[in-house]
Amino acid sequence: MHFIRRLLVLLLLILFWRPGILQAQSKQAAATKGMKLDTGQEIFEAACNGCHGPGGRGQPQSTLGFEPPSTFPDFTDCNGSTREKTFDWKAIIHEGGPVRGFSEIMPSWTDALTPEQIEKVMQYLRSRCEESGWPLGELNFPRAIMTEKAFPEDEWLLTSSANANGTGGIEGEMVYEKRFGKRNQLELAAPYSFLQRANRGWVGGIGDLVLGYKRVLVSSMRSGSILSLLGEVAAPTGNKTKDLGSGVTTFGAGAAFGQILPRMSFFQMQTGFDLPTDTTKVSNAFFWRGVLGKTFAQKGGLGRSWSPMAEFIAERDLVTGARTDWDIVPEMQITLNKRQHVRFAAGVRTPLNNTAGRSTQLVFYALWDFFDGGLREGW
Ligand code: HEC
To answer: How much distance in Å is there from the Cα of 156 to the middle of ligand 1?
Structure first.
């Protein structure tokens, strides 16, 4: 199989002859042969420098001999490198760029380097960000449908839920998340809904717009955990008479937590308060959300990722005599493309108690991590 693959690669290289690429690739392969390569840095200097530049900073196009792709990494740039997972980098070094939808110029090193050497050069890449305090991509768990994650993101997200029984209703949110520096993220959310009225007519539109802020307090690879504070304000932009808004400004405050568990499992939790400015119209509320999940990667990590999760949700109005509503959401998230920055999730939200007037819902989202590339890249 390897032989056939190499033959194909050779054919492709001949077909799409770009002298720079081949020169760079063969220069590097020749350089590694017969050399004594002990440390990650030695391996990097012998095998990777030619393209990735001294220290992994990148090279000017004139030295490279090919036009670097827009996603060409600078491994010393903490903002770009720390959010990547070691697992993904390893897959790329083993199999070459195309395994994650990157350029074929990034060669496979399975034949030229031993697994130990790949491990060492991996450690070296990780050491290139010299600033402490950047949360690592390992702590960026698959997003659950209800539970907000602790990791700061650059993402577009479209969520939606549809009543499975009772009156018709489709609700959801369009969310834009933008990360700033090590620890901060701003979020804008526009909720929408289409609801069936008693007269069976439908009303729909945009609800109360939300501005949110997330700040990572602690992230530690030693304990495998990340903790963030969340704050938000929802403005009464939705039409209350059409059930599209609450009619009052509401502040939200809470926290999100994530924990690595063995064998690619994870636990995430979010808790918070909704505090409306006028409690005669809307009462204060408390919520808790928790999710347990595990990621299965097809073809030993080179293929599609599947992340089944079980989510639990508790909500309670903060008035005397109020009861706590519990829901369970079994769900599945899958990566849609090779780059894994476009994902989809679906689940069923079922009330566990106080079921009167609370419908079972089908819940979905689609997300696009725009830092990792355009929506149409990496397929
Ligand atoms: C022939 C040129 C070339 C050589 C030699 C090379 N690379 Fe690459 N590498 C690339 C290119 C080009 C990309 C970017 C692909 C893209 O963005 O589409 C890349 C991407 C990567 C990535 C993905 C980074 C990201 O954006 O997440 C990793 C990791 C990587 N290379 C590691 C290595 C290591 C380690 C070596 C040496 C063992 C090496 N490369 C040798 C050209 C090369």
So the answer is: 27
Q: What is the CATH number of the domain that holds 275?
A: 2.40.160.40
Those residues of the chain that have pLDDT short of 50 are: 1, 7-20, 22
Centre of ligand 1 from the C-alpha of residue 73, in Å: 8
Span from the CA of 320 to the centroid of ligand 1 (angstroms): 60
The residue contributing the CA closest to ligand 1 atom 14 is 72
Beta strands 265-276 and 184-196, pairing class: unpaired
For residue 165, the enclosing domain spans: 138-372
In a domain, 332, yes or no: yes
Q: What is the pLDDT of residues 336-372, one digit of tens each?
A: 999 999 999 999 999 999 998 888 999 999 999 999 9
Q: What is the pTM of this model?
A: 0.87
The reported pLDDT for the residue numbered 9 is 45
Radius of gyration in angstroms for the set of CA atoms belonging to the chain, rounded to a whole number: 24
Residue nearest to atom 24 of ligand 1 (CA): 73
d(CA 160, CA 171): 5
CA gap 20, 201 in Å, rounded: 64
